[in-house]
């Protein structure tokens, strides 16, 4: 009887825990490399933004934002040498398929290389675990430890990167002070948000997460994006990296 209960318990656990083999595979051609961890892939005649799973490459500097060069461009150049114009295989973990920008999260492979691992192993990216570790997470962690011990790339003992990409993004992100205006909702004073109630910073690119379109700073379209659908970026490059495309004339989606 006890043996039967043990088997039943093990069955329940197996149903609840995510399976390491629970993944789907896609294939496509790499059209563009945005940086060391984000690429554009054509899959079945559709363009998809892909975020390399569980790695984080140094940020490419735009305009007056400093702190990640020359490592950002080195990582992008290395990624281009591995995948640009090539057919890649994407392994996507079911149940954890996209990030907050709706990019595909994938382990990326060419015929002979596991690209996520090559980026970390070469010192061009960090291991970056998420809330759910995929089947290659341990392998990527080992690759980072090996790169650190060898002192390659961002781990160079004298000229290595002093600040991890996520720390850099957190430090350089400006507080727009918009969330403080939601306090009336907590108090039960639910009001429909309006563009006037939530002004747009004049230097920000405004993206619409519903239409996946972005508008340049100060454009009429930016002002008309509903506050509930807004995302802010510092540059058009950052918006495109996140999967948004620039608005065409007359596109004023809310």
Features:
five-stranded mixed barrel, single chain, globular, 254 residues, 2 domains, alpha+beta, four-stranded mixed β-sheet
Describe the fold and architecture:
This protein is of the alpha+beta class. It folds into 2 domains: 23-167, OB fold (Dihydrolipoamide Acetyltransferase, E2P); 174-246, DNA Methylphosphotriester Repair Domain (3-Layer(aba) Sandwich), CATH 3.40.10. Helix content is 28%, strand content 22%. It has 8 helices and 11 strands. The model is unreliable at 6-21 and 174-197 (pLDDT under 50).
Query: What is the number of helices?
Result: 8
Write down the overall mean pLDDT.
81
Do you know the CATH architecture of the largest domain? Answer: Beta Barrel
Overall number of domains: 2
Looking at the structure, the CATH topology of the largest domain is OB fold (Dihydrolipoamide Acetyltransferase, E2P)
Strand content: 15-25%
Summarize the structure.
With 254 residues, the chain is α+β, with helices and mostly antiparallel strands. 28% of the residues lie in helices and 22% in strands. It has two domains: 23-167, OB fold (Dihydrolipoamide Acetyltransferase, E2P) (Beta Barrel), CATH 2.40.50; 174-246, DNA Methylphosphotriester Repair Domain (3-Layer(aba) Sandwich), CATH 3.40.10.
Helix-strand layout with pairing:
Elements: H1 2-16, E1 23-35, E2 38-43, E3 46-52, E4 55-56, H2 71-83, E5 87-93, E6 104-109, H3 115-121, E7 126-127, H4 137-150, H5 165-172, H6 183-186, E8 205-208, E9 213-215, H7 220-224, E10 230-233, H8 236-241, E11 245-246
Parallel strand pairs: 3-6, 9-11
Antiparallel strand pairs: 1-2, 1-5, 2-3, 4-7, 5-6, 8-9, 8-10
Helix pairs in contact: 3-4
